[in-house]
Amino acid sequence: MGELKRKEYEELVEPLRRELSHAARWIAETGQRLVILFEGRDTAGKGGSIDMFASTLNPRQCHVVALPAPTERERGQWYFQRYIPHLPARGEISLFDRSWYNRAVVEPVMGFCTPEQTSSFLRAVPEFERDLVEDGIFLFKYWLCCDQDKQEARFKARLANPTRRWKLSPVDIEARSRYQAYTDARERMLEATHSPWAPWSLVDFNDQRLGRLTLLRDLLDRLPDRELPLPTIDWPPLDHEPLREEYRTLRPIAPYAAGP
Amino acid sequence: MGELKRKEYEELVEPLRRELSHAARWIAETGQRLVILFEGRDTAGKGGSIDMFASTLNPRQCHVVALPAPTERERGQWYFQRYIPHLPARGEISLFDRSWYNRAVVEPVMGFCTPEQTSSFLRAVPEFERDLVEDGIFLFKYWLCCDQDKQEARFKARLANPTRRWKLSPVDIEARSRYQAYTDARERMLEATHSPWAPWSLVDFNDQRLGRLTLLRDLLDRLPDRELPLPTIDWPPLDHEPLREEYRTLRPIAPYAAGP
Amino acid sequence: MGELKRKEYEELVEPLRRELSHAARWIAETGQRLVILFEGRDTAGKGGSIDMFASTLNPRQCHVVALPAPTERERGQWYFQRYIPHLPARGEISLFDRSWYNRAVVEPVMGFCTPEQTSSFLRAVPEFERDLVEDGIFLFKYWLCCDQDKQEARFKARLANPTRRWKLSPVDIEARSRYQAYTDARERMLEATHSPWAPWSLVDFNDQRLGRLTLLRDLLDRLPDRELPLPTIDWPPLDHEPLREEYRTLRPIAPYAAGP
Amino acid sequence: MGELKRKEYEELVEPLRRELSHAARWIAETGQRLVILFEGRDTAGKGGSIDMFASTLNPRQCHVVALPAPTERERGQWYFQRYIPHLPARGEISLFDRSWYNRAVVEPVMGFCTPEQTSSFLRAVPEFERDLVEDGIFLFKYWLCCDQDKQEARFKARLANPTRRWKLSPVDIEARSRYQAYTDARERMLEATHSPWAPWSLVDFNDQRLGRLTLLRDLLDRLPDRELPLPTIDWPPLDHEPLREEYRTLRPIAPYAAGP
């Protein structure tokens, strides 16, 4: 069975996007808070999944959180401290492009933290997440999976495509030779942090389009019933002919014309 | 002449995206700072233009700034104060989805500020922008234009489409009857703030795809020469067969299956 | 037995301040983090106690956290969220002038939160504090007590003294008639949150100077042994006569001269 | 003429504190914003001056801003960017313990910035301050002066006193041999930044207590007339005997008892 074609994907995703819109309206109107963590192997498809959400939702409601490396001062704080200001307020959605789970997988595999720091993180995280869930936050944790042949093919595509080159970081290159170590670290993380109140969902992203549909469908199924009638909006006709732009100070720049 | 078709647009935008990627790499490697303000009429196409940038660029380099309404405390601060923390650091790009220019157009047209506040803003903004530009920030200000018949058609499309409904705010609805007031406020703003160091560019977004191409081409032309050779990356073959995912704790959830 | 005289207090506090300085140096040099919560009845003496610390310690190491009322957006966040950015980084000390315990006493007594919010807070706080303590933060919680006759006398002094008037808020005035409700709320709080990892200390502030000494002595006794030799600093004599200020642009303003 | 004695100082400062309280109330009630920059030589007396303000004023109104060294990311931002979030909101007072003027004196004298950075700062600062003043902020800039013999004596006192040792930084020690360079840098700064809208005041702090009185008197004289009647507060007697603390869960810890 081959991968999902773009056209087919677009037909399938459209009704899901519509459901997502409804869910977002329910979140806004009833003051819910939603956190989605996107974790997984490099190239698995975190970015594309986040785009699927972000391009559907109101940027004033839905924030993508992609933190840079911690500063020296942040390194000396409670590990969760720099993430917490980005948790959603009432009615908001936070999409974490990587998250506190850096300390469970990338950092130990790459040697960016000590084994003790990882162990201590793995002990602390279930309680931390319980605090959030008990406070009423909806917390979903997705791990995106792919086999190494897919990963290699996607790395090569990035290497070849200048607009994708920024996706190829030195860490990625190093990650190629540590595929198995990532697997092992992930399994250890799952054992320690797959809790009843904040379970993990693994999603197969060997086919990225199918993976996105799977992830979104899963999310929608796990949110509570959330149908709200669309408000009717009174829409009187204009009481004059539509107006046109008038330029008194500056005129628009010349429209783009493709080369000769 | 009809509007640009999607396929045609995609062919035309691809080389521009590539140039944008190069420019972003130049910004990162030479430590530049880039600010782009997206202003314009409702429905003109700010969101789609920002997506064109955001989906091409590294989210750790390029931040979309879409601030909520100011808090009571913020309302009592220097007007620019809440925008300034979002200015880019070295190597970064900030895309402002609306900006300090709220005070020049939306706020006075909608009665959210006093005429004195707008006048005082219009006097202050050229100096403020000069401070930024003299500090070395690249500042581009785009105003997206469209005629009212286009605006009406787009409003109606939002009204009909549940996934676009969030784009239809009460302010938008009110804006329908104030098309001319927007024009007048914009003209006053241009007179006061189209400065040699921070000029405005108006872009015709009656055809949104063409507008995006026009805007991006203009931006690229106005950035300094920025060709940097792509770094060569050493890419040895794997020294083993590609590995596969192994699941010892949890298995991936069932893939999405459409229909009954 | 009368209250401690100022001169007597100053003699007694001096050696404690010295110990506190040593402790602060130990905190800085070994990268500890110290949090002290100051809670208690109005007029008990929180401000004076905090000043005792703040005037001894380096303001770049020791931060006083006195948060304003939450914004509307903050009210819709995880209750602890707005406090967490103020937790200390490595080597730092945070003094909380009131804290998350607002929700246990002042808010319910004054009707600023629902009984459910207080109950939910009281259930959540031990786990939250455990997270901090397990991360290695030193957390001390002091509750300052005083009888109502003292409170009345101090309120009256504030009423009479214009420089103290700001200390007399509408909440204070209301608090007069709710002395017993404060007691009851405090007792409930102690039952719920006096945990082995984050115990409360009540300190009698009927005599404020004695209270400050008691609090500081207690804190010092509960910090681990922390003697570090003072670094020797090489201090060569100046190789020239001491210089004098020279004024070439502006001269100092005229010194203060009292009365006519 | 000798230095002001403590008792004498306390008698003189008391009425000034009272005036300061009135001014602070005027600021709060009329929604003014006040910024005071404290700059000057090491040991001149910035800390003590700030304490004089901070111990008189409501910490929820009056914030001391003592920023740590900039992070790497902050170093790549607009130079003023990290200071701006600390500007006061309506009704607030910000006391800057050192300020953006670091770049004019300490940094160039100590070699922490390039000569070009200082020159560029000196060119930019008058416009930046004009932006603030035109926005209605009251901005006062004090430079505290002292001769080198006083500085030497104070350094030695810090060296001898463990509770003052933190005030003796490596930069201070280095500063001893650069007294004249500080003078020269200050003079250059005054020439460039003593503007009509944001003038400097130099204050002689060879006698620190007198210096504090001078500074405070000057500030009070330059604020607009600000007498507001103290609100009368209704103060009914308690309708019961004053209550006493009751301890049902924990008892207060034993009061401090000095040595054996």
Automatic annotation (TrEMBL), chains A, B, C, D:
InterPro entries, A to Z: P-loop_NTPase, Polyphosphate_phosphotransfera, PPK2-related, PPK2_PA0141
Domain (Polyphosphate kinase-2-related): residue spans on this chain: 4-226
GO molecular function: polyphosphate kinase activity
EC number: 2.7.4.-
Top-level taxonomic group: Bacteria
Enzyme class: transferase
UniProt KW keywords: Kinase, Transferase
SUPFAM superfamilies reported in the protein's UniProt record: P-loop containing nucleoside triphosphate hydrolases
Membrane-spanning residues: none
Gene Ontology biological process terms in this record: phosphorus metabolic process
Alphabetical list of Pfam families matching this protein: PPK2 (PF03976)
Function per UniProt: Uses inorganic polyphosphate (polyP) as a donor to convert GDP to GTP or ADP to ATP.
Complex formation: Homotetramer.
Family affiliation: Belongs to the polyphosphate kinase 2 (PPK2) family. Class I subfamily.
Descriptive protein name: ADP/GDP-polyphosphate phosphotransferase
Gene that this polypeptide is encoded by: ppk2
